[in-house]
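Quick one:
INPUT:
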Protein backbone atom coordinates (compact mmCIF):
# COMPACT_ATOMS: atom_id res chain seq x y z
CA UNK A 1 0.00 0.00 0.00
CA UNK A 2 2.79 2.43 0.88
CA UNK A 3 4.51 1.76 -2.43
CA UNK A 4 1.34 2.57 -4.38
CA UNK A 5 0.89 5.84 -2.49
CA UNK A 6 4.54 6.77 -3.01
CA UNK A 7 4.32 6.08 -6.74
CA UNK A 8 1.23 8.28 -7.06
CA UNK A 9 2.97 11.08 -5.14
CA UNK A 10 6.10 10.68 -7.26
CA UNK A 11 4.11 10.82 -10.51
CA UNK A 12 2.33 13.98 -9.35
CA UNK A 13 5.57 15.47 -8.01
CA UNK A 14 4.02 16.16 -4.61
CA UNK A 15 5.07 15.06 -1.13
CA UNK A 16 3.43 12.01 0.36
CA UNK A 17 1.13 12.66 3.33
CA UNK A 18 1.77 9.78 5.75
CA UNK A 19 -1.06 9.52 8.26
CA UNK A 20 -0.37 7.34 11.29
CA UNK A 21 -3.69 6.12 12.67
CA UNK A 22 -3.35 5.69 16.41
CA UNK A 23 -5.77 3.64 18.52
CA UNK A 24 -8.00 5.53 20.96
CA UNK A 25 -6.37 4.01 24.06
CA UNK A 26 -2.99 5.66 23.34
CA UNK A 27 -2.58 8.83 25.39
CA UNK A 28 -3.32 11.67 22.99
CA UNK A 29 -1.78 14.53 24.92
CA UNK A 30 1.37 15.50 23.09
CA UNK A 31 0.81 12.92 20.35
CA UNK A 32 2.74 14.31 17.40
CA UNK A 33 4.83 13.06 14.49
CA UNK A 34 7.99 12.94 16.66
CA UNK A 35 6.59 10.82 19.50
CA UNK A 36 7.64 7.20 19.99
CA UNK A 37 4.31 5.52 19.06
CA UNK A 38 4.09 7.48 15.81
CA UNK A 39 7.75 6.88 14.96
CA UNK A 40 7.14 3.14 15.43
CA UNK A 41 4.27 3.21 12.93
CA UNK A 42 6.23 5.27 10.41
CA UNK A 43 9.29 3.01 10.79
CA UNK A 44 7.32 0.15 9.24
CA UNK A 45 6.54 2.25 6.17
CA UNK A 46 9.81 4.09 5.55
CA UNK A 47 11.79 1.10 4.18
CA UNK A 48 9.11 0.70 1.50
CA UNK A 49 8.98 4.33 0.35
CA UNK A 50 12.58 5.36 1.07
CA UNK A 51 14.08 3.90 -2.14
CA UNK A 52 11.64 5.96 -4.22
CA UNK A 53 13.13 9.21 -2.82
CA UNK A 54 9.77 10.92 -2.42
CA UNK A 55 9.23 13.67 0.13
CA UNK A 56 6.75 13.01 2.91
CA UNK A 57 4.75 14.85 5.56
CA UNK A 58 4.08 12.85 8.75
CA UNK A 59 0.71 13.37 10.37
CA UNK A 60 -1.19 11.74 13.25
CA UNK A 61 -4.84 10.74 13.28
CA UNK A 62 -6.17 9.55 16.64
CA UNK A 63 -8.92 7.01 16.01
CA UNK A 64 -12.11 8.33 17.64
CA UNK A 65 -14.09 6.26 20.14
CA UNK A 66 -16.69 3.94 18.64
CA UNK A 67 -19.67 6.01 19.70
CA UNK A 68 -21.30 8.16 17.05
CA UNK A 69 -22.26 7.69 13.41
CA UNK A 70 -20.61 4.95 11.36
CA UNK A 71 -18.65 7.24 9.02
CA UNK A 72 -17.41 9.70 11.65
CA UNK A 73 -13.79 8.47 11.60
CA UNK A 74 -13.70 8.37 7.78
CA UNK A 75 -15.04 11.92 7.50
CA UNK A 76 -12.50 13.21 10.04
CA UNK A 77 -9.60 11.50 8.25
CA UNK A 78 -10.72 12.92 4.90
CA UNK A 79 -10.95 16.33 6.57
CA UNK A 80 -7.33 15.97 7.65
CA UNK A 81 -6.32 15.06 4.10
CA UNK A 82 -8.28 18.03 2.76
CA UNK A 83 -6.55 20.43 5.18
CA UNK A 84 -3.25 19.27 3.67
CA UNK A 85 -4.74 19.76 0.17
CA UNK A 86 -4.28 16.07 -0.69
CA UNK A 87 -6.14 15.43 -3.97
CA UNK A 88 -5.98 11.64 -3.54
CA UNK A 89 -6.02 9.21 -0.63
CA UNK A 90 -4.65 5.66 -0.77
CA UNK A 91 -6.23 3.32 1.76
CA UNK A 92 -6.11 -0.36 2.53
CA UNK A 93 -9.15 -2.45 1.72
CA UNK A 94 -8.78 -3.91 5.20
CA UNK A 95 -8.08 -1.14 7.64
CA UNK A 96 -9.20 -0.21 11.13
CA UNK A 97 -12.97 -0.29 11.58
CA UNK A 98 -14.46 2.75 9.86
CA UNK A 99 -11.21 3.61 8.07
CA UNK A 100 -11.03 0.89 5.44
CA UNK A 101 -11.02 2.02 1.83
CA UNK A 102 -14.71 1.35 1.34
CA UNK A 103 -15.74 3.53 4.29
CA UNK A 104 -13.44 6.29 3.01
CA UNK A 105 -14.91 6.01 -0.51
CA UNK A 106 -18.43 6.26 0.90
CA UNK A 107 -17.55 9.25 3.08
CA UNK A 108 -15.77 10.98 0.18
CA UNK A 109 -18.84 10.47 -2.01
CA UNK A 110 -21.12 11.93 0.66
CA UNK A 111 -18.99 14.96 1.53
CA UNK A 112 -17.27 15.59 -1.80
CA UNK A 113 -13.82 14.69 -0.54
CA UNK A 114 -10.66 13.60 -2.35
CA UNK A 115 -10.46 10.61 -4.66
CA UNK A 116 -9.81 7.39 -2.70
CA UNK A 117 -7.72 4.52 -4.10
CA UNK A 118 -8.48 1.09 -2.62
CA UNK A 119 -5.31 -0.99 -2.40
CA UNK A 120 -4.86 -4.56 -1.22
CA UNK A 121 -2.79 -4.69 1.96
CA UNK A 122 0.73 -5.99 1.53
CA UNK A 123 1.21 -9.52 2.77
CA UNK A 124 4.96 -9.30 3.20
CA UNK A 125 5.47 -12.47 1.18
CA UNK A 126 6.76 -12.85 -2.32
CA UNK A 127 4.62 -14.43 -5.05
CA UNK A 128 7.24 -17.08 -5.81
CA UNK A 129 6.25 -20.72 -5.55
CA UNK A 130 7.68 -22.77 -2.71
CA UNK A 131 8.04 -26.49 -2.27
CA UNK A 132 5.07 -26.47 0.13
CA UNK A 133 2.65 -25.26 -2.56
CA UNK A 134 0.18 -27.88 -3.77
CA UNK A 135 1.13 -29.62 -7.05
CA UNK A 136 -1.87 -28.15 -8.91
CA UNK A 137 -0.82 -24.61 -8.00
CA UNK A 138 2.71 -25.30 -9.23
CA UNK A 139 1.39 -26.61 -12.55
CA UNK A 140 -0.81 -23.54 -13.04
CA UNK A 141 2.06 -21.18 -12.22
CA UNK A 142 4.47 -23.05 -14.55
CA UNK A 143 2.04 -23.05 -17.48
CA UNK A 144 3.41 -21.20 -20.47
CA UNK A 145 1.40 -18.59 -22.36
CA UNK A 146 -0.36 -19.56 -25.58
CA UNK A 147 1.88 -19.84 -28.60
CA UNK A 148 1.47 -20.59 -32.31
CA UNK A 149 3.23 -23.95 -32.07
Amino acid sequence: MAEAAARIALARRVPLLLIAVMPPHIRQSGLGPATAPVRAVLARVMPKIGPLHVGYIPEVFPLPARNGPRLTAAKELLGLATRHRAPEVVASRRGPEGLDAFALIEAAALRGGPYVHAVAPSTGTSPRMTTQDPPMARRVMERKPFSDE
